[in-house]
Amino acid sequence: MENSRQISELVIKRLPRYYRFLGELLRTGIKRISSRELAARMGLTASQIRQDFNCFGGFGQQGYGYNVAQLHEEIGHILGLDKKQKAILIGVGNLGRAISNHVKFEQLGFQLIGIFDRNEALNGEIIRNIPVRNTSVMDEFCRENLPAVAILCIPKESALPIAEQLIKLGVRGFWNFSHADIAVSHPEVSVENVHFHDSLMTLRYKIND
Amino acid sequence: MENSRQISELVIKRLPRYYRFLGELLRTGIKRISSRELAARMGLTASQIRQDFNCFGGFGQQGYGYNVAQLHEEIGHILGLDKKQKAILIGVGNLGRAISNHVKFEQLGFQLIGIFDRNEALNGEIIRNIPVRNTSVMDEFCRENLPAVAILCIPKESALPIAEQLIKLGVRGFWNFSHADIAVSHPEVSVENVHFHDSLMTLRYKIND
Hints:
Two copies of one chain form a homodimer.
Chain A: H1 9-27, E1 32-33, H2 35-42, H3 46-54, E2 66-67, H4 68-79, E3 85-90, H5 94-102, E4 110-117, E5 126-127, E6 130-134, H6 138-145, E7 149-152, H7 156-168, E8 173-176, H8 182-185, E9 190-193, H9 196-206
Parallel strand pairs in A: 3-4, 3-7, 4-6, 7-8, 8-9
Antiparallel strand pairs in A: 1-2, 5-6
């Protein structure tokens, strides 16, 4: 179960979805599920599910099906959701507000501890019980509070310099909503991109006729 | 160039990124680039780039490098960006507002023609020159205007019923920001998901230590 570092990116990308589906099963009171049933609900094959779970040591019990609560908890543990990491968010536009207000950080392994914007008019506004601070005090804040992760809701132009500033301050992961490719110039940090435009172009391709 | 239907999902996912990078090169005045140089800028290998481009017939000129403008245009054409498809957006919360206001639909092969919300207090508000309409008139609007794509910025609970309503009205693609898995129950339509929570959990896994 611990030797999970060599797992392929594709299997890792599926883990959150398993976690989400199992959570929904739990909420609807389903206690046990076979890989065949789980596969049907998720649009996968049973053998793919078994193969994925084998990467993490199996979670066993084939004949009887999986114990939903236990599997949910184990996948959550593999993802690290049971150990909160500190996060800050930069950029309080519509997107930054949507992310701050609606993302369930605590359930996803994070604690949002700071929100920053360069617009002084926003200073002191309270979002999710956190006062918006000016980016000018971000250095000091990070040295005191050591966030592991930064959420970038800022334009592409500002993203790279801000990322570089934060990497020097110990930030080692980025949830990146800007269209800057931070990972190319900084392979030493973890980056999870949400590139809206790339996603929309992919959809445009898919509906070609 | 036309036989692009059998291309793997992974290559397709990289096309928007190529398009984005080539656009940036164009804007900085770079006219010609070798696969080696392009690879270095994108964090890929030259052979991967050549392999990807071969899926679409090559784009040739190896010794001399690629013509940036021509390659940008051809990839745009493969993606379908030169032929606009009509899109509507449903759900005018912070996220819906951010998407409506900031996404460059016209450059990405779409024309945003309608915005809907079930909250009557928002009726008539103008966003991006489009009046917000009540979801109660969505049927009528779709029968008249035939949007190909719907952008779902609504909670998970409403996403599936709304998607089903829209599929009956001829919508065949979804840009899905809700955490509902539309593609599982409706394999006949194209779905591009932006699942924030899955993305954040993936980041949590990556920064495990």
